[in-house]
Amino acid sequence: MRGRFIVLEGIDGAGKSTLSHALTERLSALTAAVLTAEPSEGYVGDALRRAGAEESHPLLESLLFVADRAHHTHIIEGWLEKGITVICDRYYASTLAYQTASLGEGFRPWLREMNEKVIIKPDLTLLLDIDPDGGMDRVNSRGESSKFEKTEYLREVRKQYLKLAEEDGFRVIDASRGPGEVLEEAFVHIRGLLELI
Fold first, then answer.
1. Fewest Cβ atoms closer than 10 Å to its Cβ: which of 24, 38, 60, 176?
2. CB-CB neighbours of 195 under 10 Å
3. 131-136 contact pairs (CB < 8 A, 24+)
4. What is the per-residue pLDDT across 85-96, written as a single tens digit (0 to 9) for each?
5. How far apart are CA 188 and CA 190, in angstroms?
6. Pairing between strand 124-129 and 85-89?
7. Confidence (pTM)
8. Domains in the chain, start-ordered, CATH in brackets?
9. Using one digit for the tens of pLDDT, what is the confidence trace for 79-124?
């Protein structure tokens, strides 16, 4: 049987990394599961990390994200064909939300069209929703930040994510709660998808 493709989305500080590891650990006890993330570990992902560090233009980053996603999607497809459930920390919605916030609403249709050429539709996308002030508190407590981690910018990113959630049928989870509560709600959605007891 084909594996299931589950994506976690949300602004910085929403708890995606924490949840993705916890979900993968729990799922691995029940079925074959693998955790992956974007940017990927491939050479285009390396270029993306360099572009981020060098404050590259958002158009360049948009194109790099799509190139990285095309390669990453091919790898994900291989896992799914083997019956492996894939948990992915960020996928196409991240590009649509973050790059639209950087480039403006007028670029949104172009970003969507570009991504639709290279993606596979996730079986389930969980949007971890948190107010940017709460997200930034978590980011600051880690002692590290990126150019994307600015409160006003993240407000626009969150707005774009919520619009995508409505358009694409994402399940929205209140990520302001503790990691245990978020994990339990996420697992309810995943249990239904995988028909697990």
1. 60
2. 6
3. 131/158, 131/176, 132/11, 132/13, 132/157, 132/158, 134/13, 134/176, 135/11, 135/12, 135/13, 135/14, 136/12, 136/13
4. 999 999 999 999
5. 6
6. unpaired
7. 0.91
8. 5-194 (3.40.50.300)
9. 999 999 999 999 999 999 999 999 999 999 999 999 999 999 999 9
